[in-house]
Amino acid sequence: DSTAQALAADSSAGSGKKYLSQPLIKEIYTADPSAHVFNGRIYIYPSHDIETGMPENDNGDHFAMRDYHILSMDSVGGKVTDHGVALDVKDVPWAGRQMWAPDAAFKNGKYYFYFPAKDKQDVFRIGVATSTSPTGPFKAEPKPIAGSFSIDPVVFEDTDGTSYMYVGGIWGGQLQRWKTGKYDASVKPEPAPNELALGPKVAKMSKDMLSFAEPVKEVKILDENGKPLLSGDNKRRFFEGAWMHKYQDKYYLTYSTGDTHLLVYATATSPYGPFTYKGVIMNPVEGWTTHHSIIEKDGKWYIFYHDTQLSGKTWLRNVKVTELKRTPDGGFETINP
Ligand code: FUB
User: Fold this and answer.
1) How many Å apart are CA 166 and CA 257, to the nearest integer?
2) 3-state class (DSSP) for residue 172
3) What are the angstrom distances between the C-alpha of 84 and each of 28, 94, 194?
4) Where is this site: Important for catalytic activity, responsible for pKa modulation of the active site Glu and correct orientation of both the proton donor and substrate (predicted)?
């Protein structure tokens, strides 16, 4: 099958390393792939990693990206097209620096591109830009989404047509600084180990997809006994990089555990949660960050993710895809990338 072929075709000859799959493109560095199927074609909305010489630190200053390129392909394994610059930080009136993990949605006959960036005060906000084409170029709204903060926006459309944005990341993603509802730069990177873990945030989108229809709410993630996960439970608690999909009437919240480098999942019967932690989808990749998205195409499920195979540097990543196999109990086979 395609996984076995990818392993067999591993191009890292001589390094002694085996990779489950190969980078989708090698001409530029890409990360944080949010994949969607629009009109039967796969579009990937990634970060565009670049070398800027910024020092590596827990704030993620070394992720100093300045623009976005969109990739597309007919099917997994098909030719990948890089559509060039879709949005540049210089064309976003409110943004200062760090164009991090984006996402996109199609509604009202338009494509909406959602992206986090630090504003001129160095506070992460979520911006939105629109286009008539899934590959852009996108025109940014003059201001970030009112009431938005932190990073890694993901927009999920439920089967009734309602769209929700999930957002958040701790440490460099600044989620912990919003605990009281107001920005406070003096807060530690995360709560003490015996305190409740921070969850991602969710808000229903307004019909025009340019604003929130309600204030953001915390998403609770519980353990198998119905108790909220604690901050010290860092193999299971939320860190960043959420994704949402629905399967057989259940909502699947998938996310990165950050400093333990796992992609994990939790399920719920409502898009607002509470979610119950279930298990690991993917073991750590090469590089510090792990970030993914999940789509269904032609009857198969796929996970898009990144590692640092091309560069060996945590801030110069490359996006990949592999099949995600579901198990009869509603879970997944854990992937060893
Ligand atoms: O790409 C910058 C940041 O790294 C993303 O926003 C996080 O999810 C992590 O992948």
Assistant:
1) 16
2) helix
3) 10, 23, 46
4) 152
**Between 1 and 232, where is the model more confident?**
232
| Residues belonging to the chain | 337
Known catalytic residue: 141? no
Identify the band that residue 17 occupies on the pLDDT scale cut at 50, 70 and 90: confident
For the segment 218-247, the average pLDDT, to the nearest whole number, is 98
Question: Does 276 sit in the ligand 1 pocket, CB within 6 Å?
Answer: no
* CA 138, chain centre distance (Å): 19
- Residue nearest to ligand 1 atom 2, measured at CA: 100
**211: Cβ–Cβ under 8 A, 6 or more apart, which residues?**
145, 146, 205
Q: How far, in Å, is the centroid of ligand 1 from the Cα of 165?
A: 17
Of the listed ranges 3-12, 110-119, 202-211, 274-283, the least confidently predicted one is 3-12
**Encoded tokens for 118:** 């630090």
Task: State the Cα–Cα distance between residues 332 and 251, nearest whole angstrom.
Answer: 14
Structural element, H or E, at residue 7: helix 2-8
pTM for this model (two decimals):
0.96
Backbone angles phi, psi at 19, to 5 degrees: -115, 145
For ligand 1, whether the C-beta of 151 sits within 6 Å is yes
Kindly list the distances between the CA atom of residue 296 and the CA atoms of 168, 200, 217, 250, in Å, as whole numbers in the listed order: 24, 24, 28, 15
Beta-sheet strand order (sheet of 163-167): 154-157, 163-167, 201-204, 217-218
- Supply the pLDDT for residue 3: 42
* pLDDT tier, 16 (very low <50, low <70, confident <90, very high otherwise): confident
